[in-house]
Amino acid sequence: MANIEHIQYINVPVAQVYNALTSTEGLSEVWTRELNVTAQPGAINEFGFGDEPPTLMEIVELVPDKTILWHCVGSDPEWIGTKISFELEQKQGKTSVRLRHMDWQDVTEFYRFCNYNWAIFLLSLKQYCEEGRGIPFQERKF
C-alpha cells in the first residue's frame, strides 16, 4: 500500500480552514464547482470533474477544527477504497493542514498525477482562505 502526504501552512485561524473543507462554498472554490456536499458523518458527498464519472466520498469523521476523514466509495477504480484525511492544527495564528491520501494499491502513473494535484488542491485552499479565491478544477490548466 502507498500513501500520498502533503502539508500546507495557511495564515488564517483553523476554524476558517475547517469551514473551507466542509462547506459547499469552500469546496466549490478549492476543488470543483460541480458538487453536492453535506457536512455530517455518513453523508456521501459528490464531486464532479468534467466528463469523468463523479467522485463519491463518504464522510467517516468530522472533528471541528481538527480532523476530516473521507472514504472514497465511487471514482476512478484506483481511488475506490482509499481514504483522504485532513488534520488541522493552529499555532501562533497559522493553521497547518496535513493531507493524507491513504491505501493506494500501487504507485502508478495515476498515483503520481494525483500526488501533484493534491499539492495544487492545498495551494488552492491556501489562496481561498487567505485571498478569497481558490483554483477550482474548472479554472485549472492541465
From TrEMBL:
<dbReference type="Pfam" id="PF08327">
    <property type="entry name" value="AHSA1"/>
</dbReference>
<dbReference type="InterPro" id="IPR023393">
    <property type="entry name" value="START-like_dom_sf"/>
</dbReference>
<comment type="similarity">
    <text>Belongs to the AHA1 family.</text>
</comment>
<protein>
    <submittedName>
        <fullName>ATPase</fullName>
    </submittedName>
</protein>
<dbReference type="InterPro" id="IPR013538">
    <property type="entry name" value="ASHA1/2-like_C"/>
</dbReference>
<feature type="domain" description="Activator of Hsp90 ATPase homologue 1/2-like C-terminal">
    <location>
        <begin position="11"/>
        <end position="129"/>
    </location>
</feature>
